[in-house]
């Protein structure tokens, strides 16, 4: 038995999309196997999507299973891929995405997808981080970070040049630091001189650097504005996989905008060869 999938990516952040009606007995095991870039299809996660077309705009229930088999409550680029997938199937340019972090609206304009990212928080209990007060530019496990939750936790550090940082060396101690009861993503940023930032992110659940991270891009913009490092709107953020724009509405909520591409379709076997 095989299960069909569609492969999408948003600025290099790539996902296998499987309809939630497809039977997969162990979603975590399938993600571990098929997200592997040497022995599987290769991806930053698997999105299980349930489409509810009776609503206007249509709704999509999104569950993200990461390469380590865990689930994540939110993924900015993943949600934009889910939106594109749903728009392609409903002939619309607007959808609502139900995530574990809340329901978010997505719109497609001129070939790019914008998704609401909710209200970011610095509250220690909501990040979460073991601290009495919000953490701004404090050294934690060797990196000077600001802690924010943009759907998932991020430790954001500003550096002179992201390309000069050995992220695979400096990120894991922070990602697994005792200060973080649920772990954290680790995002570094360097200013471009025009109010924007270059980005690199080591993602929790992927346990490696990814080509792009939407929640990380939003985290950079939110923290930079809070610390007075930029007053741009939108804030241009440039991960290795492409360009993203982060904007803010009157309520302080962020939106994330960028391209999405449908790469190819295929099939995977839900059970491992040993189980067949």
UniProtKB/TrEMBL annotation:
The record marks 154, 203 as: Could be important to modulate the pK values of the two catalytic cysteine residues. Its EC number is 5.1.1.7. InterPro entries: DAP_epimerase_DapF. Gene3D superfamilies: Diaminopimelate Epimerase, Chain A, domain 1. The active site is at residues 75, 213. GO terms for molecular function: diaminopimelate epimerase activity. Substrate binds at residues 13, 66, 76-77, 185, 203-204, 214-215. Pathway: Amino-acid biosynthesis; L-lysine biosynthesis via DAP pathway; DL-2,6-diaminopimelate from LL-2,6-diaminopimelate: step 1/1. Residues 246-256 have a biased composition (Polar residues). It is found in: Cytoplasm. GO terms for biological process: lysine biosynthetic process via diaminopimelate. The keyword Isomerase applies. Residues 232-276 are annotated as: Disordered. Keywords: Amino-acid biosynthesis, Cytoplasm, Isomerase, Lysine biosynthesis. GO terms for cellular component: cytosol. It catalyses: (2S,6S)-2,6-diaminopimelate = meso-2,6-diaminopimelate. Catalyzes the stereoinversion of LL-2,6-diaminopimelate (L,L-DAP) to meso-diaminopimelate (meso-DAP), a precursor of L-lysine. Belongs to the diaminopimelate epimerase family. PANTHER family: DIAMINOPIMELATE EPIMERASE, DIAMINOPIMELATE EPIMERASE, CHLOROPLASTIC. Homodimer. NCBIfam families: DapF. This is Diaminopimelate epimerase. It comes from Natronorubrum tibetense GA33. The gene is dapF.
